[in-house]
Amino acid sequence: MLEIPRTQIENLSVPRLMAGTNWFLGYSHTSAAKDKLIKEMQTRQHLADILEVFFNAGVDAVYGGRPGAKHLTDAMKDAEDRTGRKCVRIGIPSFNTSGTQEATDANLKLMDEFMELDYDILMPHQNTTDVLVDKRTRTIRDIDFYVSAIRERGMIPGLSTHMPETPIYADEMGLDLGTYIQIYNAAGFLMQIEIDWVHRMIWNRKKPVITIKPLAAGRLHPLVGLAFSWATLRDIDMICIGCLTPDEAKEVIDISLSLLEKRSTTVKLQETRSKASVKENTDTG
Predict the structure, then answer these.
(1) CA–CA separation, 198 and 210 (whole Å)
(2) Cys staple from 123: which of 14, 158, 180, 250, with CB 3.0 to 4.6 Å?
(3) pLDDT tens digits for 219-243?
(4) CA 79 to chain CA centroid, nearest Å
């Protein structure tokens, strides 16, 4: 089986498919009950089982870990030990943007914590980045402080955002960044403008883009969501996807490889009684 293709974020080799953490840490974008289910079931052991599947297929990057999520930190190490692969760690810290000395000290301390956990890329979370975006001046206020402090700690800086303006302004400002985040899915879920506008914005960027929510937080069928993303992104761009179980990770990998290889997927189809009349012709499992 072929592995997921790779790209570069500066001098760092990364897979074009990445493991997201919303379905690890309890952010379903569905309901409080679903969030509770995720948090209850995603133990260190279970997370390591999912990551082992990803790492074995070359999907050895995790987006969204944090110092406070010790069970995820431990699971990443467990999966590394099982597979012999070094995980690319991408953090999305929330910083205090008040500008006080106390806030600055706390922000630097948080960066140090990510550095000590061997994170490779640090991207201020949307709740930091988007607060600083100024549409009037087409700038991102105070961002140089975060970028330079991340560089000083040996990590590649990026920007996590939900705003399509952010990567545009970052390029216009010539910010010293390695990558950006952008929400991108066929449903337009949580996207602030039309899909074709975001598509054009991604293609015009100076740096590779990590796209998130490719299945619209479970609202799109995996084949539909992944087909759209793989077909419409550049070869340098990435897809970050969350999975709840090892079997889901296997399906995501198989569907992705089948799309890239232009073949039918071998994923077992979901069966219901209404499909009995067509089963013989469509069952590829």
Answers:
(1) 13
(2) 158
(3) 999 999 999 999 999 999 999 999 9
(4) 18
